[in-house]
Model the fold of this input.
Amino acid sequence: MKRLLSIAIVVFVGVQIAFGQVTPNLDWATRVGAKAFPSSQKIFIANNYGAVSDTTINTKFIQRAIDACAKNGGGIVTLRPGNYVSGSLFIKSNVQLRIDKGVTLLGSQNFDDYPEIDTRIAGIEMKWPAALINMLNVKNAALTGEGTVNARGKFCWDKYWKMRKEYEPKGLRWIVDYDAKRVRTVLVQNSSDITLKGITIKNAGFWTVQLLYSTRITADGLIIRNNDDGKGPSTDGIDVDSSSWVLIENCDIDCNDDDFCLKAGRDWDGLRVNRPTEYIVIRKCIARKGGGLLTLGSETSGGIRHVLATDLIGKGTGNGFHIKSATTRGGTVEDIYFQNCTLDSVGTAFQFTMNWNPSYSYSKLPAGYHYEDLPAHWKSMLTKVEPASNGIPHFKNIYISNITASGVKKIVNAAGLKESYLEGFHFSNVKINGNTAGDISYGDRWIMSNVILTGADGKKLNATNSKNLQLENN
Done:
């Protein structure tokens, strides 16, 4: 009898989960983030190593202070109040670079001040300029303070737009982002137990913060502003890229692309690397301008899973919750929780697509080019995924709950594929007003409980080529 009763309870709980009434186990979410922080309180003032607050390029002087700090067992590297121009800096293990109130680190406007390194960018491993601030192959390091890092990225934006005008008529839209080689602001790569806390970061030349191939990271209280000097293209806020056990909290982002974004490699090269992004918590954050409050993809090749996004606010972002991929990416996006969020005047509340931005997503070599003469990253982009079925992405087991929104243009824009349905999307306690409820195609097991989607046009949520749908109150 006890065995039968236990089976009955398991079945009952399973049914409740299926209908969105019980949140599955999220015990892992209490274990994310950095588990260590540089403990030494020894102070190394970069001005004592030659740094000056004027137009001098201070890279070597600040780096001397960082290196001396690391050599002497770690500690805190600081600067006296002022504005300091620098190229790429490399924080070492056990070092805390603290940008205090009254200090502004200004990014050099010269590409030569950012040496190329082996890294991954937009899902492809290649040579690329180092970021303004780097943590490469380090443990127990931090970037903190109440000061400002202004990357002054317009020199990168101008280069990119000039190249776009040259490349697009040649049928090369798919490669221009990689050839432009714009400078990121903060890069954490192959590192662990890293803390980013409190600083204001402005005007990224490309992505603002990239967390790549790393684990045990905390990003707390970052303020990102990338629209001060104009509309900087692809200036993502925080990108978590094939990394794990990450905590992002209390951050405020205003950028010109995805605000909080999770990635895991692109196409053939991403499938070769095959590293997931997993065990990620994003909480108590706000996104203002930007492509999406929370975006997963489009680089999905290694898989994105075990994600909790909670207590977020989106104000004027292009999308609220966006999952995107392409038919050459592959990978599975699964076990995702988007909950307790408020959306205000966003473009689309829920945007799910497996065929995102074809002109960018699919690589084709125009006539007149010889493959053997191409750069290595062009060849990576052009290598076909074989069999082609390996390039089909999968989205499944997505849990959306306790969402309110107003001023939305389109509430749902969801398009799976005939080969890959949007599977197991669970909505509960969702109330949204918008211009139109929207559309679902190729959905399977979409279950809505206590969901009210009100379109000003009076139309209901439209579902085509879908099955096993329970669309309540919409």
Summary: The two ends are 42 Å apart (CA to CA). The CA atoms of residues 325 and 361 lie 9 Å apart. The longest strand covers residues 394-415. Residues 1-22 have pLDDT under 50 and may be disordered.
